[in-house]
Amino acid sequence: MNFDATRYDTIKDTFEKWWNGELKRPIIQVTLDKAAPTGGDFFASNYRKVILDAMYDFSLPVEEAAKVVDDAYSAVEYLGDAIPVFYMRPTGILGGFLGQEFGIDHNLGTVWFKKSCDDIEKIADIQLDENSELLKRSVALTKAVQEHFNGTMPMGLPDFGGVMDIVSSIRDANPFLLELCLEPEAVEAACWNIHEQFKKAYKIFMDAIDIGKIPGYTCWATMLSQEPYFVLQNDFSAMISTDMYDEFYLPILKKECELIPRTIYHLDGPGAVRHLDSIVTVPELNGVQWIQGAGAPGLDQWPDIYTKIRGAGKLCQLFINGAEELPYIDWVVDFLGSPEGLCFICTGKDNEREAFEKYLEKYKCI
Q1: Count of domains in the chain?
Q2: What is the CA angle 342-344-346, rounded to 5?
Q3: What is the pLDDT of residue 40?
Q4: With CB atoms 3.0 to 4.6 Å apart as the test, which of 49, 317, 320, 354 could cross-link to 289 if both were Cys?
Q5: Which residue intervals of 209-326 are DSSP H helices?
Q6: CA-to-CA separations, 323 to 219, 315, 365, in angstroms, rounded
């Protein structure tokens, strides 16, 4: 792996100041994929696909899969506040732990989970399957990678997915939308049960991670923390009203934020923006991650979002895909009048290094 572990001494302190609202500059993480033929895209990087393939090759012993992770990261360089991370992918994996069938898409670099329940009422009774081969492999991989890197790899919880997203995946979105209107009590029971299963899975993986053997906690959003943290989400919320969100999910969000010491909310796309006013009212929520989505206007077209997030005292995390998006950092900082409380996760290719280094120097991240 291409990372000098002595950098953690500085990066740990930097991130703790950021989480506590004491860092006077932004976090800027720059990950350069030296093998990338074109552009920087956080979600489409080739090394991520290699790691995913190894995770889901059940014929490959977990110790060998850990070596694949190590080799894959040899093609990656970390600048500024960037760090390598490990977590079990993909989004929605909790559904697999609950019995959903799944299949890997090697070209897209993701895994799809299939509908598994024809009755919303049955979801209230679904239990975590501790004999699930996927769950057992996920725990074993978490432990094996932790041991292989011997204190140099931050470890994250699996990307469980959001409670309502899991219900939608298990049930299918169209009937689930109807049942929100026609069977609200059954929907509420289903959502709260998935929350309970989320809590069980959370404990299993927290027991598998030894903070004494890692430089800190992380997750799919590659920040570092000395306390457990997680990115919460409800992408399904783009299809429901604010009243439905507040009735069926906001109480669960509050419980999730009470369970996990540090939390960031994944606000994904224009359809989810209407719920932001409710989201930022949760006292225990530390921050909001904004992703405008494919085809939506750039990061400089959403001033109200930044005003609401930072106005509520929440941290704000954004993605920069490729050097051509670097000016968005200036725009957001200038608009808010301060670089504090901001985190930019940047992805690029090796020949963009100079452009990224200029920004790291400008914001005193090197």
Answers
A1: 1
A2: 175
A3: 55
A4: 317
A5: 242-244, 250-259, 276-279, 303-311
A6: 24, 23, 16
Q: What residues in the chain have per-residue pLDDT under 70?
A: 36-44
Residues found in the chain:
366
- Pair 29, 81: CB distance under 8 Å: yes
Q: Are 114 and 60 within 8 A, CB to CB?
A: no
Q: Quick one: tokens of 3?
A: 């990372």
Using DSSP's 3-state secondary structure scheme, residue 12 falls into helix
Phi, psi of 100 (to 5 degrees): -65, 140
Residue 36's pLDDT is 61
Tell me the two tokens of residue 171: 């049930």
For the CA atoms of 182, 184, 185, 186, the dihedral, rounded to the nearest 10 degrees, stands at: 70
Angle at CA of residue 200, ends 199 and 201, nearest 5°? 90
Token duo for residue 228: 């457990």
| The pLDDT value given to residue 2 | 86
Distance (Å, rounded) from C-alpha 228 to C-alpha 95? 22
Range of the domain at 123: 5-362
